[in-house]
Write a structure and sequence with these properties.
208 residues; 31% strand; 11-stranded antiparallel sheet; alpha+beta
């Protein structure tokens, strides 16, 4: 009797093993495992952003909430800061690529007009990615980075810009992986590049 029980138990174990193996092998071809699905999700390319149509607005900010502005070229950088008060004047500092101050001044009406002009970026047309990349590479020393700062907790968004004096005059703006020909006037960037001579409300002071 005991021997029969052992044989029956062994037969039951064998049946269970066969069933488990069958289920495992049958499930392998039915779809990816959870680990594989997670790996595929992690390695998936980020979605390609949709270009903004002509006349669409790429960026906008209320100048009254602006507390800072940065404009950087490969060999010099302009930084402007003020307290969180729209009536306060901006303190402007121009430095070289090593951080040494070249000049400093208080921003005047001309600087306020520049900020107002840059506070809204509208698109003239989207550019092909390859053409945009080649354009920036061909004018590497003219490519600048600009960024507005405000008192909110929102992370400031830097934009690469390429003012081209033409013909025709145009300003290329890069947003992430998208290239745009913008409606920004090139004169705004010419004033920024000129520094305190074009932006000061009071006489500029030279750095050491």
């Amino acid at each position: 009797m005991k021997q029969s029980s052992r044989i029956g138990l062994l037969a039951l174990v064998l049946v269970v093993v066969v069933v488990v193996v069958y289920v495992y092998r049958s499930g392998r071809g039915r779809g990816p495992s959870l680990d594989r699905m997670a790996a595929d999700t992690d390695s998936a390319s980020p979605p390609i952003p949709v270009p903004i149509p002509a006349s669409g607005e790429l960026f906008a900010i209320d100048v009254d909430v602006v507390t800072g502005f940065d404009f950087g070229l490969p060999n010099r950088k302009l930084t402007a800061r003020r307290p969180n008060d729209p009536k306060s004047r901006f303190s402007i500092r121009i430095s070289d690529d090593k951080g040494h101050e070249l000049e400093a001044c208080q921003g005047g009406q001309a600087f306020s007009e520049v900020l107002s002009g840059l506070s809204s970026i509208r698109v003239a047309r989207a550019l092909d990615g390859k053409a945009g990349t080649q354009l920036l590479a061909a004018h590497r020393q003219q490519v600048a980075t600009m960024m507005f700062l405000d008192a909110t907790a929102i992370e400031p968004q830097p934009y690469r810009v390429l003012p081209l004096d033409g013909p025709p005059e145009r300003v290329i703006v890069v947003d992430a992986r998208l290239f745009y020909e913008s409606r920004l006037p090139i004169a705004l960037f010419q004033k920024l590049s000129a520094g305190c001579a074009a932006l000061a409300g009071l006489g500029p002071t030279r750095g050491d």
